[in-house]
Amino acid sequence: MRSPFADDPGRASDVFVTLGSLAEERGTDAAGVALLGGWPGLGHDGCRVVKGRGRFSAVWRTELLAELDRAPVAMGHTRWAAPGSPADAAGAGPMLVAGPGPKSAGIAGTHDGDVDAAALRARFAPSAPPGGAGGEAILRLLAGRRGSSRVTEALEALVGRTALAWVDRDRPTQVHLARAALSPLAVAVDSEQNIYWASNPRWFRVVQRYTRVRFATIVMLREGTYMRVGTERAPGRRDRPQVLAAASFVPAARPADRDDRVWAGFTEADRDRDRATLRHRLVSPDLAPVA
């Protein structure tokens, strides 16, 4: 998410592309990019999504760089095809999901992890129709939810590994970030107040070695954290991105979700610090709490 006060948009763009390449550690079956900003030139009513099979570095195209430099918000994603086929890039993020009514533009978002989509469909049938990837079911559930309490109600219903980033396309200057159970999510702010997020805090330290950007803050979100960041975009004002709302909730995971591969690519110190803060509740496959 860009700060309107950044002197050179190319610096944040360099970080975005570098993070995309580093994210290949966590998926090379498919990848994608979403550029959001409300300009007709981006297509899709101000949201352009490009995704395909293979690595992020193969899906990313240099001709997108000018649009990336202009986009207030950009999201990237890499994916192992589980569930789904590596040949099907449609299951990759970022995904566009329709809103709950004809006047809603819907949301664009990404999901890392593996959730019990059947349980979502059983509890929220209208919001999570049969078929599609687990990430799509989650985004459908979140579409149209406003306010921290309504969002965390949905997040508490998830069972499985989950980290999310999404944008309500009716409010394209704000990004929602959530870490439920296990799947890691780190947030960084650079010296110009651009905001970034990624699955591994180490990547931000690598970025500082290979780009012109220096980070003022790098934070690993604790399980059960939801935040909304961005600007209110008042007419005639240029606001720095900031935390607009934050809430905590108790996430849920299945016993099989607790796997050290969650921290693949982490340094030992980063892994140990994060493991010491875990607070999810365990739920059996039949959704009965585990004693």
From TrEMBL:
Regions annotated as coiled coil: none
InterPro entries per UniProt: GATase_2_dom, Ntn_hydrolases_N
CDD domains noted in UniProt: Gn_AT_II (cd00352)
Domain Glutamine amidotransferase type-2 intervals: 1-232
Pfam families: GATase_6
Name by which UniProt lists this protein: Glutamine amidotransferase type-2 domain-containing protein
Organism encoding this protein: Actinomadura nitritigenes
